[in-house]
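pls design
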């Protein structure tokens, strides 16, 4: 790749900062970073691999922030980690063996449904929240959720954070703040899994990915702290707005 102009790097940094903030609060930062990378003339597979490197900084920062504020318990969600890892590997390995046309056309409808559910879903009070009891049913939910969403992230990716957030609210009755914390941790798991695959295939621009990653990390730090400070009243409108924009973007690409 040719040398990038300083002004272009500055614009990329600002885009990455905004994407990190959005991703930490609602997910969907890739809506900004992937087109930005493609605009540089990178081949699509290089752009995706580089974005995974940068996105890993954001998801790691957000997940760590939620963990430090006691809004996420890694031990409790161990089965989800393992299931997501397995699902992401499987999806990444077989992505070229399946037709994604039906997924591209149906995905916007599913994401619209996520936004509608979020608008009307009643929120439990944060101060009264306790983790659900550990039962065989809970473990089954974690395995089914982790493998399916991890698989989807390996195959496609758009809306993964939104699916994690809303499905966690449904399956475990998490409040939105804790559901976002879980989503960021699982996003990091599937991001790293896909990133390793892209690295093995030689499809990552490390210089560009690390540069954008630093800005994404800063944006994610600000976004996660904002979400934790202001809670669901801040997360919900941002989440719904980002999800609706994502759905419209995907619908336009698939149907028109």
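designed seq:
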């Amino acid at each position: 790749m040719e040398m990038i102009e300083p002004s272009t790097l500055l614009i990329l940094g600002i885009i990455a900062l905004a994407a990190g903030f959005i991703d930490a609060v609602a997910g969907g930062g890739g809506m900004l970073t992937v087109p930005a990378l493609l605009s540089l003339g990178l081949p699509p597979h290089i752009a995706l691999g580089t974005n995974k490197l940068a996105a890993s900084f954001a998801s790691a920062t957000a997940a760590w922030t939620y963990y430090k504020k006691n809004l996420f318990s890694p031990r409790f969600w161990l089965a989800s980690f393992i299931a997501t890892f397995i699902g992401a590997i499987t999806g990444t390995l077989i992505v070229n063996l399946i037709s994604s046309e039906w997924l591209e056309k149906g995905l916007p409808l599913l994401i619209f449904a996520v936004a509608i559910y979020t608008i009307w879903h009643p929120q439990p009070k944060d101060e009264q929240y306790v983790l659900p009891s550990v039962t065989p049913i809970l473990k089954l939910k974690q395995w089914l959720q982790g493998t399916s969403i991890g698989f989807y992230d390996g195959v496609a990716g758009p809306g993964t954070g939104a699916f994690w957030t809303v499905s966690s609210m449904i399956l475990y009755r998490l409040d939105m703040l804790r559901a976002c914390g879980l989503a960021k941790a699982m996003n990091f798991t599937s991001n790293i899994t896909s990133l390793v695959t892209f690295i093995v295939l030689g499809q990552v621009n490390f210089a560009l990915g690390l540069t954008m990653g630093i800005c994404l990390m800063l944006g994610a730090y600000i976004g996660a702290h904002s979400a934790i400070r202001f809670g669901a009243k801040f997360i919900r409108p941002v989440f719904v707005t980002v999800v609706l924009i994502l759905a419209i973007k995907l619908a336009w690409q698939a149907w028109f």
